[in-house]
Design brief:
With 282 residues, the protein is of the alpha/beta class. The chain has 2 domains: 184 residues, Rossmann fold (3-Layer(aba) Sandwich); 74 residues, no CATH class. The mean pLDDT is 88.
Amino acid sequence: MNFPNHKGKMVPVPSTSIIPERDLGKIPVLEARHLGVDFGGLTAVDEFDITVGRTEIAGLIGPNGAGKTTVFNLLTKVYQPTRGTILLDTRDTAGMNTVQVSQAGIARTFQNIRLFKSLSVLDNVLIGLHNTMKYPLGSALLRLPSYWKQEKQAREKALELLSIFEMQDVADTPAGSLPYGAQRRLEIVRALGTSPKLLLLDEPAAGMNPSETYELMENILKIRDTFQIAIMLIEHDMNLVMGICEGIAVLNYGRIIAKGTAEEVRENPVVVEAYLGKKKEG
């Protein structure tokens, strides 16, 4: 799959990581240091270190069962880390819960679509936006002017977000009646409603055909450029990963085995072995 070259040059930062050259001089949006989690006697993730630039499109790849979704669950506090540090915009997220992390600036989508399928497309986006709305409880209960003003603003913003994916015309359609690819797009729009600094996409191209995947790649770039945010994705479609991801980390058995640009990762023999198995000699 040919895709226009949009990637920035990756440069070292004062650690073992790299970020896009355009993000030099800016505080990284995410730094995970020595991150790990144990479940009973099982270590699921260990010594996970990553730095994500403020406008980077980063990839997290690895074989099935490598621990990729567990990492996302740690970053969003679905699981509390056993050890290590997560800095979001230099802010330590220790002790935060999932709601607090969302309010601090991390949004995500899931492997399995989690929409309110009986609600309209617009209402699904409004649910995401309500995290950012500020009015007293009394104003909402009594339907005071301040409440209606913010509700109107939220509706306008929701329609604006839907227009990015050209979905404003289906705003009143039940979410569950949308085609699969459109449901995936809606989940991303809803995540954007929380005004994130970092958007985590868990296998966004799952179930998509090549045409839908190409459109998704265009939309991910559009999101990064429009909102000037970082995006980190888990994905098995290597055409997508190699086509748009700038920095890529490869996870295997809960540990990072390689980090680098798409070209470096593609040619890394350790990565090839993790995916394809070690070749027999002779």
